């Protein structure tokens, strides 16, 4: 009985094709099916790569187009009488959003705008580079002479100190909030000295120069008093330039108080008493009540979106040079 059942099972498996050697025709059919499946997978991958490349290309072109354009809200309202607004926001440095190149670009557009009846510089900055601040200050003074009918008002919001106040002083009038921080008319350069630390850890400094003062202010060598005195004259000269610009811009509105140029800063209310500002008002109030145009159009140059996409790499050569000397960049603050 068991033998008959075994024979039956073998016959049944053979009848249904199990355990039967496959013919060459069947192998070719299997190979064809596998090859077809692989072709479909390859096509699917190619189309996927294609669509990804198209999407990336579209985004890149869009970024380039919008980056090349000047991103400001100079839309339909710019064809009607309005107040032109330019933001001075953040640290004023050559590689920042508040660099002279970017600020001057927006300010020029605001002056040139046919329907802009006046300009508001909305200031919110602790200051920065005296060079960048001076460039903007002088350009505003030049444009005021070229467009004498356009009034320029600086309006300080949170902070308008140091280099930011340097720029604000070029305006016809300066306004602030009662709680704004205003002033800090001074110059500073800071750094570190590592001489004692090197002695403790047994490190010897080796520097070779072709000039007696080429390694001046080297943080790894003792500070030379004659070099300290010389560098102080540089800071003093930059400070005097700052003072002269503020006096030129503010004129006899400044009170006769030596503390004004000592580096101190004040609230907006205190600054009004010292003649550093002309009134207490917001940008909207100034546009409405001083310029006479409540409609505001923003001429502030915006960050190139391509820059935002890839980020900033590296630092400027000037920063590296100052770091090599062991001192920070000279700043108005």
Could you walk me through the main structural features you see in this protein, from its secondary elements to its overall organization?
The protein has a single domain (71-332), classed as 2-enoyl-CoA Hydratase, Chain A, domain 1. It starts with a helix and ends with a strand. The protein is of the alpha/beta class and 333 residues long. The protein is built from eleven helices and ten strands. Residues 7-18, 65-73, 308-318 and 321-327 have low confidence and may be disordered. The strands form two sheets. Strands 1, 2, 3, 4, 5, 7, 8 and 9 form an eight-stranded mixed beta sheet that branches. 48% of the residues lie in helices and 14% in strands.
Determine the number of helices (DSSP H or I, runs of at least 4 residues).
11
The CATH C-level name is Alpha Beta
Question: What is the 3D form?
Answer: flat
Amount of beta strand: 5-15%
Q: Main β-sheet, in a few words?
A: 8 strands, mixed
Which range best describes the helical content: under 10%, 10-25%, 25-40%, 40-55%, 55-70% or over 70%? 40-55%
Please supply descriptive tags for the structure shown above.
single chain; 333 residues; alpha/beta; 2-enoyl-CoA Hydratase, Chain A, domain 1; eight-stranded mixed beta sheet; two-stranded antiparallel sheet; 10 strands; 48% helix; 14% strand; flat
Helix and strand layout, with pairings?
Blueprint lengths: L1 H14 L8 H45 L13 E8 L10 H13 L3 E10 L4 H17 L4 E11 L1 H6 L4 E4 L4 E3 L3 E2 L6 H7 L23 H26 L14 E3 H7 L4 E2 L2 H9 L4 E3 L6 H6 L6 H9 L5 E2 L1
Parallel strand pairs: 1-2, 1-9, 2-3, 3-4, 3-5, 4-8
Antiparallel strand pairs: 5-7, 6-10
Helix pairs in contact: 3-4
């Amino acid at each position: 009985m068991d033998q008959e059942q075994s024979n039956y099972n073998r016959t049944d498996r053979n009848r249904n094709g199990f355990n039967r050697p496959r013919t060459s025709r069947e192998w070719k059919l299997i190979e064809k099916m596998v090859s077809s499946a692989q072709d479909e997978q390859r096509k699917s991958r190619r189309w996927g790569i294609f669509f990804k490349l198209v999407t990336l290309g579209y985004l890149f072109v869009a970024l380039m187009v919008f980056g090349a354009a000047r991103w400001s809200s100079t839309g339909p309202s710019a064809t009607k009488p309005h107040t032109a607004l330019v933001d001075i926001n953040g640290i004023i440095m050559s590689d920042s959003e508040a660099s002279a190149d970017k600020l001057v670009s927006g300010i020029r557009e605001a002056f040139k705008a046919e329907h802009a009846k006046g300009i508001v510089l909305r200031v919110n900055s602790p200051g920065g580079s005296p060079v960048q601040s001076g460039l903007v200050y002088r350009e505003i003074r030049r444009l005021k002479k070229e467009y004498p009918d356009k009034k320029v008002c600086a309006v300080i919001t949170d902070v308008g100190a140091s280099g930011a106040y340097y720029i604000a002083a070029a305006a016809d009038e300066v306004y602030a909030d009662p709680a704004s921080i205003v002033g800090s008319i001074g110059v500073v350069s800071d750094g570190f000295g590592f001489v004692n630390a090197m002695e403790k850890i047994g490190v010897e400094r080796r520097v070779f120069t072709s000039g007696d003062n080429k390694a001046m202010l080297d943080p790894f060598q003792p500070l030379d008093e004659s070099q300290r005195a010389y560098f102080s004259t540089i800071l003093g000269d930059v400070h005097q330039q700052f003072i002269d610009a503020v006096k030129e811009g503010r004129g006899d509105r400044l009170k006769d108080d030596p503390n004004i140029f000592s580096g101190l800063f004040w609230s907006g209310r205190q600054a009004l008493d010292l003649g550093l500002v002309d009134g207490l008002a917001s940008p909207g109030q100034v546009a409405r009540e001083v310029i006479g145009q409540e409609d505001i159009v923003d001429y502030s140059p915006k960050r190139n979106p391509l820059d935002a996409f890839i980020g900033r790499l590296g630092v400027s050569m000037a920063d590296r040079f100052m770091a090599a000397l062991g001192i920070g960049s000279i700043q108005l603050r």
